[in-house]
């Protein structure tokens, strides 16, 4: 499921960026740092859509780096148990197949008669969430689930 | 009153789940002679007829070897059906228990003869009804869920096991298990290729893709589920009945002992019996002072209390009556009697504390009576004042009393209706008039003893 939420992060900025474009530098660095990461709590950060607030910077002793508390709006993707997703099959082995729905990897056991790169609609039946990664297992044994398009057909 | 249902629950549970449990360890070979299946059922049944019981006594009663009984009880303790308590005590200290037993079941003779100073560890056991209820429900839930999940192939996480080292994984570990040489799953510790674990319930034929095998498996599971529902029907029924009832709770051993001996003391009015046993107990005297009780002392409460104890069971308010309770018609209020008119704080937990309840009942009754008398005398006084012209002070004639023409009288009646909504009182009105004659000038006087008793009885029956 996707969420549009406000997150906060302390950004360290090198003194060489201090100047007229300090703010732009800060935002581009934030995007580079945050987009595509995964936190167990919020899920995958898909995109930053705006900056809510940049707080007062604090100069670090010794280094000259400045820490800015930045509040930003972003779209996150967090898979939940019971959620229906469409995914692309990335690998098939004799135990089942792996599929990807955007950044999240899903394993479906016991289905081997399936082709790589086909699209499937599946239901998540379990998630394993670490601090920095999320892995799901799914099933295609339910109503309206299964292969929705074959690579051969297209 | 819920005890019966709960005992039935225990008995059914014993037969359903513990029928073929042997007290022996699994490693010992079962011979025909030492086969003691069904012992679990016997022990549980015996426990339903007891409260806290010393294990030695139970063994003696069941003609079982103590060791065997202990093993069974330990098993039930692990199964959470039974609570046990062990304590060191002198033979004399065991008297506290014996006294308590004597109070609950007066058949057992107390062992006063033996007086050794040696400390023995005695174990006691008791059924934990509330927990049994939960355990059984949970067990049934798990059974059903497992079968259903398996049947729909839903929510089942595929498990993998390493054939070499026996390490187990499930599908959530899949990402860590793929090796780069081939696509299969390999054990993390020994790098052997893992095998998918087949279903535990229905023996799964190899080859998951085989539709025929899958269908057969599904049929098997469905049969199993159906059989479970049919065969456990009595158990689910009793669970349903028992659901809203309060489980009998004997408390901890100490609390139970104290309570039992307190009851004994109350009924025997022999305060020495308990004291001597308590002083015999090893260890410090317990700080437990019995349950907090509030008694409002009225004159003549003593004799009323005894009377009320033999009185018929009172009607329970409708919100207290639940499905599955064993109640007499009277308790269900079939006669439509309103015994506790204003329904004062007869909360559920009072159910157990019978003495308190009776006290309260008496208090309620007294309150009502007082209110009634107050209203009654007031009305009569007013009536008198109206009649003061004729000045018949010593005899307010009985004839003109019940006429509705008198406004004060009707007012009285209205108030009376508000208070108890019972026609009964009106018929009774002539009775207190005699009292009235005696102390005419006292407003809202306490009724004399005899009269009150009469009222009490009428009130119960009406």
Protein model, in words:
The complex is a heterodimer of chains A (154) and B (462). Chain A is mainly β. Chain A has two domains: 2-77, RNA polymerase Rpb7-like, N-terminal domain (Dna Ligase, domain 1); 84-149, OB fold (Dihydrolipoamide Acetyltransferase, E2P) (Beta Barrel), CATH 2.40.50.140. Helices cover 8% and strands 54% of the residues of chain A. Chain A has one helix at residues 22-34, and strands spanning 2-13, 38-39, 43-54, 58-59, 66-77, 84-93, 96-101, 104-109, 119-129, 134-139, 146-149. In chain A, the strands form two sheets. In chain A, strands 1, 2, 3, 4 and 5 form a five-stranded antiparallel β-sheet that branches. Chain A has a five-stranded mixed beta barrel with strand order 6-7-8-10-9. Chain A is elongated, with a radius of gyration of 20 Å. The relative contact order of chain A is 0.18. The model of chain A has no long low-confidence stretch (mean pLDDT 91). With 462 residues, chain B is mainly alpha-helical. Chain B folds into three domains: 3-127 and 247-280, no CATH class; 135-235, Zinc/RING finger domain, C3HC4 (zinc finger) (Herpes Virus-1, 2-Layer Sandwich), CATH 3.30.40; 299-462, no CATH class. Chain B contains 18 helices and six strands. In chain B, the strands form two sheets. Chain B has a three-stranded antiparallel β-sheet with strand order 1-3-2, with helices on both faces. Chain B has a three-stranded antiparallel β-sheet with strand order 5-4-6, with no helix packed on it. In chain B, helix 1 (3-17) crosses helix 6 (129-152) and helix 10 (253-268) runs antiparallel to helix 11. The longest helix of chain B is centred in the C-terminal third of the chain and has 33 residues, at 354-386. The two termini of chain B are 25 Å apart. The interface between A and B is medium-sized, with 21 and 20 residues. Chain B: Belongs to the TFIIE alpha subunit family.
């Amino acid at each position: 499921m996707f969420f549009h939420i406000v997150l906060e992060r302390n950004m360290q900025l090198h003194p060489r960026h201090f100047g007229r474009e300090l703010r732009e530098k800060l935002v581009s660095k934030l995007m580079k740092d945050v987009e595509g990461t995964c936190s167990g709590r919020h899920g995958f950060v898909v995109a930053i859509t705006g900056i809510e607030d940049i707080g007062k910077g604090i100069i670090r002793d010794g280094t000259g780096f400045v820490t800015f508390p930045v509040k930003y709006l972003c779209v996150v993707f967090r898979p939940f148990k019971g959620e229906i997703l469409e995914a692309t099959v990335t690998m098939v082995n004799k135990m089942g197949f792996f599929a990807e729905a955007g950044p999240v990897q899903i394993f479906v056991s016991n289905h081997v008669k399936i082709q790589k790169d086909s699209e499937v609609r599946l239901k998540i039946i379990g998630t394993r969430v670490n601090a920095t990664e999320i892995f799901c297992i799914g099933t295609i044994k339910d109503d309206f689930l299964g292969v929705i398009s074959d690579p051969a057909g297209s | 009153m819920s005890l019966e249902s709960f005992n039935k629950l225990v008995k059914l549970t014993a037969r359903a789940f513990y029928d073929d449990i042997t007290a022996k360890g699994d490693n010992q070979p079962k011979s025909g002679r030492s086969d003691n299946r069904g012992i679990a059922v016997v022990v549980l049944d015996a426990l339903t007829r007891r409260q806290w019981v010393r294990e030695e006594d139970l063994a003696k009663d069941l003609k079982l070897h103590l060791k065997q009984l202990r093993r069974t009880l330990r098993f039930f303790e692990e199964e959470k059906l039974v609570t046990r308590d062990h304590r060191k005590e002198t033979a004399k200290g065991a008297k506290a228990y014996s006294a308590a037993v004597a109070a609950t079941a007066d058949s057992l003779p107390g062992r006063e003869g033996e007086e050794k100073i040696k400390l023995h560890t005695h174990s006691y056991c008791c059924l934990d009804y509330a927990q049994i209820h939960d355990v059984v429900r949970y067990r049934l839930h798990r059974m059903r869920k497992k079968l259903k999940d398996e049947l729909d192939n839903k929510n089942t996480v595929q498990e993998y096991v390493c054939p070499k080292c026996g390490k187990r994984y499930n599908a959530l570990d899949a990402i860590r298990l793929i090796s780069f040489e081939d696509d299969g799953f390999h054990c993390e510790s020994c790098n052997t290729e893992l095998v998918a674990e087949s279903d535990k319930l229905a023996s799964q034929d190899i080859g998951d893709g085989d539709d025929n095998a899958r269908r057969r498996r599904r049929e098997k599971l469905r049969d199993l589920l159906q059989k479970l529902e049919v065969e456990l029907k009595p158990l689910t029924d009793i669970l349903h009945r028992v659901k809203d009832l309060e489980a009998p709770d004997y408390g901890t051993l100490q609390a139970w002992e104290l309570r039992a001996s307190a009851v004994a003391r109350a009924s025997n009015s022999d305060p020495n019996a308990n004291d001597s046993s308590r002083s015999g107990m090893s260890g410090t005297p317990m700080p437990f002072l019995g349950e907090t009780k509030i008694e409002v002392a009225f004159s003549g409460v003593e004799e009323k209390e005894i009377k009320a104890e033999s009185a018929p069971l009172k009607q329970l308010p409708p919100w207290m009556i639940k499905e599955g309770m064993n109640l007499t018609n009277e308790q269900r209020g079939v006669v439509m009697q309103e015994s506790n008119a204003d329904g004062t704080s007869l909360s559920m937990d009072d159910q157990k504390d019978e003495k308190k309840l009776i006290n309260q009942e008496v208090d309620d009754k007294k309150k009502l009576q007082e209110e009634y008398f107050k209203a009654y005398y007031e009305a009569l006084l007013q009536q008198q004042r109206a009649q003061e012209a004729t000045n018949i002070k010593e005899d307010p004639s009985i004839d003109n009393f019940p006429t509705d023409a008198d406004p004060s009288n009707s007012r009285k009646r209205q108030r009376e209706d508000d208070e108890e909504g019972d026609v009964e009182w009106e018929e009774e009105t002539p009775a207190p008039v005699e009292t009235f004659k005696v102390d005419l000038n006292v407003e809202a006087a306490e009724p004399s003893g005899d009269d009150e008793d009469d009222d009490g009885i009428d009130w119960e029956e009406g």
